């Protein structure tokens, strides 16, 4: 019999990996042996200094609350306003349409990470930090191999959630996201704005820390993104105001700006023997509609649900459970990926006929509830098999 060190090894200690560790630690049956491998390189990425904000939907809040990982810092999104710059048509989605307190929430990345990290630290998960871990599996083997810092470990199942892989890119959007915060002269509490422009989508969201302020996610060309990064605060504030329009009055930038390149990355096989890929390691999406972490958390919930029969006896073959997981996540992943891939491309096509059709589509969504509700419901909680 092959030597096995862990029932489950989790590669990556971002929010998805930490959420999976929390969920497995809370399993009501016999507790599996779980190890969490993280790359200990603050120079590459220090979560405590990460300035990004995340848009989490109602379903993600419910799941994180179940894991006791919901952060105190958050701002509610009660109404979403979607429009297209220079075209007629817009659609409104309100929390009252779905009888929920909020459609979603804006939370700091660092707050989500810290909350989940705290829970994992107080649990039974074994921690391994150091150089990035490598994973290898062999056909017919009863375990996969993890190597870190010159040490080799074996686990019955390995779950990779350590970010996008270079060989999984399907599309370079030729866009960068400019991330910052600003304060509008005429703010509207609880409103989120998704404005499609020829440069790319511009999201103006409630700020989770600063009162009456907005989190800004401005998608534009790499060249313009670098120009916006180099601009002084007065120039950037004026550019943002001109780009968004006068609906909220002039903007005043509050924080340092950061830029991130945007691409669509999709792993061909989410299950390969005893190796499972979830979260950003399985798919990295365009930030339009803010679905990345929501999808990753649904991966976590789906995996734990599928593994429940196996967790009662980890020495049995996990193949049926892993196959069921892959099948159960196929529709949600496909719908969300296509939606977030299509939206920014059609609105930035530069074709006047397509742009006009997009404006009419937004108008139709606003006027026709049977069209609007399925889209809103998917963004609210995703597809659940």
From TrEMBL:
All copies of domain FAD-binding, residue ranges: 152-312
Cofactor(s) in the UniProt record: FAD
Naturally occurring in which organism (per UniProt): Advenella mimigardefordensis (strain DSM 17166 / LMG 22922 / DPN7)
Pfam families to which the protein is assigned, alphabetical: FAD_binding_3
Record keywords: FAD, Flavoprotein, Monooxygenase, Oxidoreductase
Family: Belongs to the UbiH/COQ6 family.
InterPro entries to which the protein is assigned, alphabetical: FAD-bd (IPR002938), FAD/NAD-bd_sf (IPR036188), Ubi_Hdrlase_CS (IPR018168), UbiH/COQ6 (IPR010971), UbiH/COQ6_monooxygenase (IPR051205)
Keyword Flavoprotein set for record: yes
Cited PANTHER family: 2-OCTAPRENYL-6-METHOXYPHENOL HYDROXYLASE (PTHR43876:SF8), UBIQUINONE BIOSYNTHESIS MONOOXYGENASE COQ6, MITOCHONDRIAL (PTHR43876)
Pathway field: Cofactor biosynthesis; ubiquinone biosynthesis
Molecular functions per Gene Ontology: 2-octaprenyl-6-methoxyphenol hydroxylase activity; FAD binding
Source species, domain of life: Bacteria
Biological processes per GO annotation: ubiquinone biosynthetic process
Name of this chain's protein: Putative 2-octaprenyl-6-methoxyphenol hydroxylase
């Amino acid at each position: 019999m092959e030597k096995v060190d862990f029932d489950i090894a989790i590669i990556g200690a971002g929010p998805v990996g930490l959420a999976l560790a929390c969920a497995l630690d809370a399993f009501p049956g016999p507790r599996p042996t779980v190890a969490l491998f993280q790359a200990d390189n603050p120079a590459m990425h220090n979560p405590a200094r990460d300035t990004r904000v995340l848009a989490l939907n109602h379903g993600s809040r419910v799941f994180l609350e179940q894991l006791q990982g919901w952060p105190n810092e958050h701002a509610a999104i009660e109404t979403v306003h979607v429009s297209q710059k220079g075209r007629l048509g817009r659609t409104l989605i309100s929390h009252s349409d779905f009888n929920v307190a909020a459609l979603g929430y804006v939370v700091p990345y660092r707050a989500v990470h810290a909350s989940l990290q705290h829970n994992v630290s107080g649990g039974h998960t074994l921690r391994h930090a150091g150089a990035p871990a490598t994973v290898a599996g062999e056909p017919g083997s009863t375990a996969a191999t993890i190597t870190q810092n010159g040490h080799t470990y074996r686990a019955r199942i390995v779950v990779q959630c350590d970010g996008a892989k270079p060989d999984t890119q399907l599309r370079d959007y030729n866009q960068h996201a400019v991330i910052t915060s600003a304060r509008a002269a005429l703010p509207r509490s609880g409103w989120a704005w998704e404005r499609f422009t020829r440069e790319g989508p511009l999201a103006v969201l409630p700020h989770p820390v600063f009162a009456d302020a907005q989190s800004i996610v401005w998608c534009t060309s790499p060249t313009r993104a670098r120009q916006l990064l180099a601009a002084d605060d007065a120039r950037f504030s004026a550019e943002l105001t001109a780009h968004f329009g006068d609906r909220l009055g002039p903007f005043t930038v509050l924080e340092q700006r950061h830029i991130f390149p945007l691409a669509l990355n999709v792993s061909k096989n989410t299950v390969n023997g005893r190796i499972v890929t979830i979260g950003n390691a399985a798919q990295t999406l365009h930030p339009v509609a803010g679905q990345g972490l929501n999808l990753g958390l649904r991966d976590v919930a789906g995996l734990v649900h599928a593994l429940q029969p196996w967790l009662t006896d980890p020495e049995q073959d996990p193949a049926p459970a892993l196959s069921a997981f892959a099948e159960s996540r196929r529709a949600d992943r496909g719908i969300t990926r296509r939606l977030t891939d299509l939206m920014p491309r059609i609105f930035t096509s530069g074709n006047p006929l397509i742009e006009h059709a997009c404006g009419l589509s937004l108008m139709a969504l606003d006027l026709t509830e049977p069209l609007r509700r399925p889209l809103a419901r998917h963004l609210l909680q995703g597809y659940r098999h």
